[in-house]
Design a protein that fits this description.
This protein is an alpha+beta fold. It has one domain. 34% of the residues lie in helices and 12% in strands. The radius of gyration is 22 Å and the shape is elongated.
């Protein structure tokens, strides 16, 4: 098991084996999740929009977004 030591400034160094496996480079940002007994570090995408990719894909399954938006526009036009 890999380990890391907390410095007097509350900093840790990520072991090189873990950095290589995850492709973590200097300047990369990590997301921190704290549970009752653990702290989980995850790589964050460079662009914030990449984190949203695939969000809600189950909601849109089988729905054509272009047709959906056209339907909303048509509905809006009928109300006016």
């Amino acid at each position: 098991m890999l380990s890391a030591k907390v410095s007097t400034k509350h900093q840790i160094s990520i072991p090189s084996e873990a950095r290589k496996k995850l492709g973590i480079e200097p300047g990369d940002r990590l997301a921190v999740e704290v549970t009752a007994e653990a702290m989980i570090l995850r790589r964050r995408p460079a662009k914030p929009s990449d984190r949203l990719r695939g969000l809600g894909k189950e909601v849109w399954k089988g729905v054509d977004p272009v047709d959906y938006v056209r339907g909303l526009r048509d509905e809006s036009d009928r109300i006016r």
